[in-house]
């Protein structure tokens, strides 16, 4: 019971202390060091500073300055107007995750590295006016997801490729020598199709070419060739729409591919079965036709070379047959001689010579 009572008594006091701490954390701490002729960012500034103005000094934002600047991580606004900044280095503001306004106007910035604004996830307003910027890489602005105002007034920019999914509400571009050739068509399309407002639109004009001089960059006429070379940029709605279309198209094509593979497998198996059936039927028909011919051929093919004793036996038998043939009447003598010649032509003589069947049989008969 005592513990419960103590807790109950101290609960309102603890809530009061927490509310005081939260209010103190939200208190703005402003530090103004303008026109102090500083060449480096001071290190003795209150670490709880939220708004820091270092305008009209000689600060260059070198490596030493960026290291000191990282210690003021509660900053929400930083003003470096009219200093000697010539270059913005990678991760120069990396630890300033609470920064919402960054003003670096009226310097001599001519190089902005790609990762210069890394870490500025809450930045809403960026002022780069009246510098010496000739060219901007659109990837520089990729980390600035919440940027709503961009001031590029008074530089030497003639071309600007708008980053995709750029959510600006206000942009200031006048005072630049804009080259209104086909390469600027994407910027014009973005200005006309997005919700961004172009400040001082009437004085944001072309400097080149001469035929388009003094045309507003938002309304400059382009020929059809420019539209073919440079298609309009993709805004967020169009991007999401195309993404959904591509996903649905991919899924449908994948399903069609699976179905076609399934159908192809069935048709291929059917085709193979038909081919095998045709081949087997053809083979059976061929075998049925040719088997009797082959059988007769093999059955009649019994010839072999006579051995020596077989030849003598055959000759003796033939001699006996010839004597019996001599007893046949004369009217069959000629036929007997012909039969004898046919049979005797296959008998080998003892002298090893083959009898010539073209010798006159009448002469042989008279000699015998």
UniProtKB/TrEMBL annotation:
UniProt keyword annotations, A-Z: Glycoprotein, Leucine-rich repeat, Membrane, Repeat, Signal, Transmembrane, Transmembrane helix
Subunit details:
Interacts with TRAF2 and TRAF6.
**Where are the bilayer-spanning segments?**
268-289
Q: What does this protein do?
A: Pathogen-recognition receptor which mediates the activation of TRAF2- and TRAF6 NF-kappa-B signaling pathways and induces the expression of pro-inflammatory cytokines. In kidney, prevents infection by uropathogenic bacteria by inducing the production of cytokines, chemokines and antimicrobial substances. In gut, involved in host-microbiota interactions, plays a critical role in promoting the recruitment of immune cells and intestinal inflammation.
Record membrane topology: Single-pass type I membrane protein
PANTHER family in the cross-refs: LEUCINE-RICH REPEAT-CONTAINING PROTEIN 19, LEUCINE-RICH REPEAT-CONTAINING PROTEIN 19 LRRC19 FAMILY MEMBER
Q: Where in the cell is it found?
A: Membrane
Name used for this protein in its record: Leucine-rich repeat-containing protein 19
Signal peptide as annotated in the record: 1-24
Among Gene3D superfamilies, the record links this protein to: Ribonuclease Inhibitor
The residues covered by the LRRCT domain are 176-227
Instruction: Please give an example of a GO cellular component term from this record.
Output: plasma membrane
Q: SMART domains per the record?
A: LRR_TYP (SM00369), LRRCT (SM00082)
Q: Which GO terms describe its molecular function?
A: signaling receptor activity
GO terms, biological process: host-mediated modulation of intestinal microbiota composition; positive regulation of canonical NF-kappaB signal transduction; positive regulation of non-canonical NF-kappaB signal transduction; regulation of cytokine production; regulation of inflammatory response; toll-like receptor signaling pathway
Native source species: Neovison vison
- Pfam families per the UniProt record, alphabetical: LRR19-TM (PF15176), LRR_8 (PF13855)
């Amino acid at each position: 019971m005592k513990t419960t009572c103590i807790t109950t008594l101290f609960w309102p006091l603890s809530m009061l202390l927490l509310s005081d701490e939260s209010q103190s954390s939200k208190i703005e701490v402003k530090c103004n060091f303008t026109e102090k002729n500083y060449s480096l960012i001071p290190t003795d500034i209150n670490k709880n500073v939220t708004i820091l103005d270092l305008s009209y000094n000689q600060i260059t934002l070198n490596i030493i300055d960026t290291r000191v600047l990282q210690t003021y991580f509660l900053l929400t606004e930083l003003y470096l107007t009219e200093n000697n900044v010539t270059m913005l280095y990678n991760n120069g503001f990396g630890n300033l995750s609470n920064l919402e306004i960054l003003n670096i106007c009226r310097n001599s910035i001519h190089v902005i590295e790609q990762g210069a604004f890394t870490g500025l996830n809450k930045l809403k307003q960026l002022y780069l006016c009246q510098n010496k910027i000739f060219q901007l890489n659109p990837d520089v602005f990729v980390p600035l997801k919440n940027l709503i105002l961009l001031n590029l007034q008074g530089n030497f920019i003639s071309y600007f490729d708008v980053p995709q999914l750029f959510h600006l509400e206000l942009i200031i571009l006048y005072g630049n020598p804009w080259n209104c050739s086909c390469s600027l068509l994407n910027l014009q399309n973005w200005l006309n199709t997005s919700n961004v407002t172009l400040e001082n639109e009437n004085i944001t004009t072309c400097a080149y070419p001469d035929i388009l001089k003094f045309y507003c960059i938002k309304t400059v006429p382009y020929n059809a060739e420019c539209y073919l070379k440079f298609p309009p940029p993709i805004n967020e709605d169009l991007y999401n729409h195309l993404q959904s279309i591509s996903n649905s198209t991919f899924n449908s094509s994948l399903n069609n591919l699976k179905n076609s593979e399934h159908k192809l497998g069935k048709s291929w198996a059917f085709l193979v079965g038909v081919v095998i059936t045709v081949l087997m039927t053809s083979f059976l028909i061929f075998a049925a036709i040719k088997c009797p011919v082959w059988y007769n051929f093999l059955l009649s093919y019994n010839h072999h070379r006579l051995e020596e004793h077989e030849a003598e036996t055959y000759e003796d038998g033939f001699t006996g047959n010839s004597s019996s043939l001599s007893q046949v009447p004369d009217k069959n003598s000629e036929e007997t001689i012909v039969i004898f010649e046919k049979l005797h032509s296959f008998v080998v003589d003892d002298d090893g010579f083959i009898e010539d069947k073209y010798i006159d049989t009448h002469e042989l008969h008279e000699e015998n």
